[in-house]
Structure formats: C-alpha cells, structure tokens
C-alpha cells in the first residue's frame, strides 16, 4: 500500500486538540476500553494510525469517528497519553468543516479568528432588520408590560400575519434553511463515502419507510434515551449535563411550535391569544422548565470541560467551546430577557432580547459547521452502522 | 548497641542479589574491604526465586551457590542480613553509614536442623512463594538460603508457639528477646544494588488481578515451576489445582504505561518465552496465547523467539490485553488484534500477567545522598562514590546486571584508592 501522508491534515488535527496523536504506539488498549467499540469494527486504534499517517479519506468515510461519544475511557487507560478521544474530536471538527457548505462559512466557523465575523453577521443582519422594520424604538413601561417583546419589530394592521413574526421568520427561517440544506449536502456525501468505503453494493437499497423504520428511528430512540452515553465510564458525569440539555432543546422546540400555532393561526380567530403567556400556562411552564434545564445542562458541561482541561485530560479547543458559549448565550439572554420583562426595564430588556436573537441566529446558522452538527452526523453514523450490519450492507459480490 | 567498625577505603554494597554479590566479589577479590547488606534474611535476591534463568537456563543454585562459596571463603567481605541503610553522612572516601538490623530471633548457634519449624504450630503466608503456600513462623527462607540459618516471624508466633519453638532448639539458638540494632560503617563508596520488586498487579485495575485465582503473575509461574516451589514444580491453576489446557500471557502488564511503569521492563518478553518452555515440558498440547505490543528479544535471544513462535499450539496476537473478565472456570482476556483489526475474546484456563520491574528504592523511600530518576532508578554519581548497579540502575536481565556490577565494582575501587 502506497501511503501519501497528508501533512496539512495531520497539522490540522494537532492544532485542533489532537496534539498528542503521534504518541500512539498502537497497543489497542483504547479499542478494548471503549464501551461503544464493537468486536467486528473496533475503534479508535485504527483511527489513531490513520491520523498519524494523514489518511484523511479513510477517516472521512469512517462512521466510527462519529459514533464516538468522547466519553474519555480510552484516554484514561491510554498508556502513552495519546488521548484518542481528543484526536477523534479533532477529526470530527475537521469533518464538519470539510463537509460544510458553503465552504467559506464553514471555514469561518472553525476557528476563533472568525469570531468577530461570526458574531458580526447576525448582529448586522438583525440590526438592519430592526432598522428596516421601522419598529426601532424603546417602548414605554406600560407597553412593555403588555406586549413584552412581541412588537420588537413593530406592528402593522395586516391582521393575518403579524409584523414581528414576519421579521423573525425572515431572519430565522433562511438561517435554519441554509443549515438544513448544508447538512443535507454534507450527510449525503458522508453516506456515499461511508458506503463506498464499506464496499456496499448499490444494487439493493432500502425504501424510505425501511430506512426510517429500520435504521433511523432506532438510532433516534437510542439518542433520546442516551443509551450509549450512559455506557461511558470516565466522563459519566457528562450525561448529567447532556441529557437535560437535549430534553431542553426538545421542550423549547415544542414551545416554539405551539407559540407559532397560537399566535399565527389560532390568534387570527381569537385575538386575545396574542401577548405573552401567563406564568401558569402549561406551555409557559414547559418553556421555563426547559430554559432552566438548558442552563443547568450547559453549566454542567461547561464545568466538566473546564475541569478536564485543568486536569490535562482534554485540551482547550475553539471547536468545543464555541458551542458551549453559544448555548450558554441563548440560555442566559433568553431567560434574562424574561426576567427583565418582569421587572419592567424596557431599554435593557430590548437590548438583551436583541442579543438573544443574535445568539439564536448563530446557533441556527452555524449548526452544520460547529460541534452542534453532531446531532445530524452522529445520528447518520448510527443509522449507517445499523444499515451496514443489515442485509442491505452486504459487500459487492464479485461478478 | 552500636558497633564501630570499618576500614578506610571499604565499599558498602546495598543489596545482596546477583548484582550486589557480583559487585562485592569483584571488589573483594582484588583486595578491597567490602560490606554487603540485604534487607531479606538471605542473599540471592530475585534470582533465587526463579526456576531457571538466562542465558543458559540454569537453575539459580548453579550461579548463586558458587558466589556464596566465594563470599564464605573471602575474609574481605562482611555480610549483614535483615539490614537496611538508615542514614548516610560524610562524603566520598569517608562516608559514615548507619545500618539498622532487624532481629532474626535466631542466633549463630543455628545449625538449620529444622526442629523449630517442626515444632512450630503457627503458619504464615510464604513470602518467598508470593503467598501461594504456607510456611511455619519459624522457617528457613528457602531451600538454599544463605546464610543457612532459620528466621522467626515473631509477630505471627502465638504464646504456645513461642514456647514450642524455644523448647525445640537443642542449640540455644532461639532468642525471642532480640532487639533491633544499629551499626555504623565507615566506607569510601556506596554501591546501590537494591534491585526490583514485581510491579503490584492490583494497581492495574482492568486486568482483574486478585479477582480470580486463574490470574497469576510471571513471578508466580517461576515459583510454581521451581521444584522447591509451592506445587513441587507443577504449573497448575492456583486454588483449584487444575492442569491448564490454555494459557494467555499478558505482556506489558503495567510496563510501557504512563499510568504505571513508564519504561519497558526489558525482561518480561524473554521471561514469557522461558515460561512457555516450562509449560511445553509439562503440557505438550496446551494452547498458549501471547498478547503483546512489541516483542523485545535482544541479540541472540532472537533464536529463542523463533523457536517458540514456530510452536503450532502457540498464537501471538499483536494487541495489548486491556480487559480480563472472570469466568466460572478461568478467565476471558480481551484485546484488539492490531494486525487483523478484530477484537479477540480468548477464554483461557489461566492468564499470566507479565508484570514488570519496579526499582525497590522508589517504594522504600529515597536514602540520603542518592539521586533517583523519574522512574526511581539510581543516577550514579561517580565523583561522589554513589554508584547504582543492576536493576537499581535500569531494568535488565542477569547478564547485563553482572556486567554493570563488575563495572560498578571498578568505579567503587577507584573512589577507594583516590
């Protein structure tokens, strides 16, 4: 086999938290200690040597890279301090940038150097929208108490579609839409590469219901229950942060859907449904419980990571911190805006709400390029793993 | 009791294993005064515990006995057992060393007749056999112990046992009132030949040592294979006494591992090959699995390796065992085969942990004047007459130890003659 090491790739991995990768001497302790590694396709030993040799193409077609939950058992038992968990994290970071589209934006979201732009884009977009909307004024206290942030972008007489919603949709839907298109493109490329690499013939393909029923849905169930996450030994504590965080996102998603339904559809017939929800409303309760779960979850993950870094078991990378910062920002500004509404300080409230919109837009817009992308990539890899071991995953038969 | 003695230009050798004995003899046989001390009640060290040793697969009696004879016949050498260095003061050419001597409770009248052991009702775990069998609390440390004198573990002796032991001795050799003593030695240089201890396998939690009798260490295999050992030379699964039909050797158990011993212990690969021979002699059909990262067979030992690797009933798997699961009858060792990329679950009757060498000075606390490296090995300072040798200096086999000990003797003499 003629190996052409991709030196730039190796250099990238070393800079992205995998600085220890060259210490590995292939003893394979990691593959045995990993609670998620299977008997047929153990990892991360093979990923370590591919990284050392700069075999980028193999790594980018390897579902095991995404199956890793970075629980750290391999790193704890590694006799050389090669930190396989960190190296796999660095490979994932590379993959999100590699598969990301448009590539300029993907690259921008991959390093701290891009931070001014990363924050600047949504700040400018939302501020310009605020200017265009003509709603740009700070309301008085009575108005603020009645309407909260529901007239941030002003109001108009066209009762079938509120101005505020119009502007929020104008900002958020394209952001999320771009993310979804980008993810779709990335995931199809990943799937194709994984399939080619696993030598799976294209002759027998599952139908959409088969794909969803046999591969995708079981993976989602595994994710929702954190089944694999709970097998982790060393960083078991991360489940304590990640599970509430994930449930919080689901909760907030439900609340957003309800709010849309209530304001934009039901509100058309019963105008009294407009306005902030009272605290005792079940959806408001769900929203606040989710917000607290989100803040608690991200706090746990934040402190676990700081602890691991101070103990030297993980390295400080922009890739890991950027997502933590963004989620923390969403949580703090969202919950903060609500508290400021209660104590009724319109100017501060509007400022914090502005920041909340900025952080939410960041979360959506950069989803495919940051660590947040793992929700899509890991799910895909898990579905692929099931696909590979199913009857569809038979290797190409020699003609 | 303090006993002032010493000769200007004398050499103190700390540790009476193969390295210490060699250093002492090489220095004394060219006319230097030598003191040699050992913390055990006998000389011979780790080599005495082996069944056979490299390079010629001799039983230890072969090499050690001639050294003991040379020591006995050499008036330049003074020996102390159950002795350890308490403090060191002074400088090169004129060290004053305080030696603490633990009570043996048996004086020099002892003829090693064995009557005390026969009379003693109390038993202890035999330390020489790593606790695999029992011996009496009044015991000869091992069959060819030198000095050939019994020793009593007073803490394990019952009142009745004490009486029985005392009454059984025809020569008035038992003295249960002995107290720890110190002596002071004036020496020109100090040679540290303190050797090694087998790395504590309990510290390697993923290898499950202690959770099943089917998990043993390589040093335990040496004792089992030795005719004088706990099983009379038969290698069996401890506890059940079962004859193993399959055996896994777990290489680098604690060695080359930042979490345990950072360095390669040098001897474990060859020890495993040697022990494969023991097993073959007793069980020609037994399946042997060797799990390794790399095999270190320096120099001509490569031939030895070639011979064992051609054994049709032996498999070599490149992959470190990182998990051992205890089964009802035996254990399952788990490793990833780095050549094929599959994970192997191998069920065996017995797993042998090829544990490495930990320099014993690191565990016992660092004596004054000695510099140790990060791993606990002695860094020699020839100008100061502080010299490390054998496995106190680096992990090594017997051949390398005797070579480095001859060198250490020469360096020590140079300080004495300065």
TrEMBL record, chain A:
Coiled coil: none
Pfam family, one: Fer4_8
One cellular component term from this protein's GO annotations in UniProt: plasma membrane
Domain of life: Bacteria
KW Transcription (keyword) present: no
Transmembrane segments: 115-132, 165-187, 243-261, 285-302, 322-344, 350-369
Keyword tags: 4Fe-4S, Iron, Iron-sulfur, Membrane, Metal-binding, Oxidoreductase, Transmembrane, Transmembrane helix
InterPro entries membership: 4Fe4S_Fe-S-bd, 4Fe4S_Fe_S_CS, HdrC_iron-sulfur_subunit, Helical_ferredxn, NarG-like_sf
Record PROSITE patterns: 4FE4S_FER_1, 4FE4S_FER_2
Domain 4Fe-4S ferredoxin-type: 57-82
The keyword Transmembrane belongs to this UniProt entry's keyword annotation: yes
Molecular-function GO terms, alphabetical: 4 iron, 4 sulfur cluster binding; metal ion binding; oxidoreductase activity
Protein name (database record): Putative adenylylsulfate reductase-associated electron transfer protein QmoC
TrEMBL record, chain B:
UniProt-listed InterPro entries: 4Fe4S_Fe-S-bd, 4Fe4S_Fe_S_CS, FAD/NAD-bd_sf, HdrA-like
Domain of life of the native organism: Bacteria
Keyword check for Iron: yes
UniProt cross-references to Pfam families, sorted A to Z: NAD_binding_8 (PF13450)
Cofactor: FAD
Domain 4Fe-4S ferredoxin-type: 101-130
A GO MF term: oxidoreductase activity
Keywords from the UniProt entry: 4Fe-4S, FAD, Flavoprotein, Iron, Iron-sulfur, Metal-binding, Oxidoreductase
Protein family per UniProt: Belongs to the HdrA family.
PANTHER family in alphabetical order: COB--COM HETERODISULFIDE REDUCTASE IRON-SULFUR SUBUNIT A, FERREDOXIN:COB-COM HETERODISULFIDE REDUCTASE SUBUNIT A
Protein name per the record: Putative adenylylsulfate reductase-associated electron transfer protein QmoA
Species this protein is from: Desulfofustis glycolicus DSM 9705
Lineage: Bacteria, Pseudomonadati, Thermodesulfobacteriota, Desulfobulbia, Desulfobulbales
